[in-house]
């Protein structure tokens, strides 16, 4: 985007939705919950306190930040540097990885919904399916080959801990969500948002929810992420060393709306580039016949199932076909 002084028309935000009708909350009115995981293995009282905080955040915000999560700061820094290095390398080197075939283990493009969305978002993204079954090292770009393998191991360990806490928060056995393969798949998305000369005309990422069970987000210092809370957009200011966690659509579905998958967006910014790394816990489009519906242990005569069963791949296929149109894909699966 070097030398660009005006936003091309394809990026002008033309979506007819409530993105711009919801007010932005006053600075300091709301703050994303921050959960310290340092004492999670200390004993039952400490763990119960953390589980209670995870439950409250998942029911009321759908988002929370974690600190003392166990992933070293240098790993987080190298992962962000690797994403930046990939997108800022020579275009000819990037070109060999360009793809819109999401059955591939790795590829990059701009806007997965480019051909069905009313306007394009101001960003480029790479996607890398790291589990189940990771790409061969030689299939990964040299810019981040070593660090993404290390980051995957770290984030999978954190994800499994979070799935335990979320299971307990639902009143289930700690291994329940892991046993039904919520942590089996991992797709890592690297987002690159160039500096934008006219940020009021476009979006870094349009309002959306995530089509997975759980997302672990690493973001840099620039900011721009907003989430919906109490019918207002709330700025999520970056906290050094913290990771953002959000509930995905599939976890809302299997929790029967006990946990909420919340809309969020990224504003375009005159400062940049902004870099973020989103780790999606989901088997995505990998062939998998397992059906997911509301967890039976959470149902009763007072709490009837709200969704029909679906496979992960069917849900993601519908989500991708619909694109970021400002509506939730969960509506399609409501009973």
TrEMBL record:
Coiled coil: none annotated. Its cofactor is Fe cation. One of its GO terms (molecular function) is metal ion binding. Keywords: Iron, Metal-binding, Oxidoreductase. Residues 184-283 form the Fe2OG dioxygenase domain. Pfam families: 2OG-FeII_Oxy, DIOX_N. InterPro entries: DIOX_N, IPNS-like_FE2OG_OXY, IPNS-like_sf, Oxoglu/Fe-dep_dioxygenase_dom. Signal peptide: none annotated. The keyword Iron applies. It comes from the Eukaryota. The keyword Transit peptide does not apply. Belongs to the iron/ascorbate-dependent oxidoreductase family. This is OXIDOREDUCTASE 2OG-FE II OXYGENASE FAMILY PROTEIN. It comes from Salix koriyanagi. The lineage of its organism: Eukaryota, Viridiplantae, Streptophyta, Embryophyta, Tracheophyta.
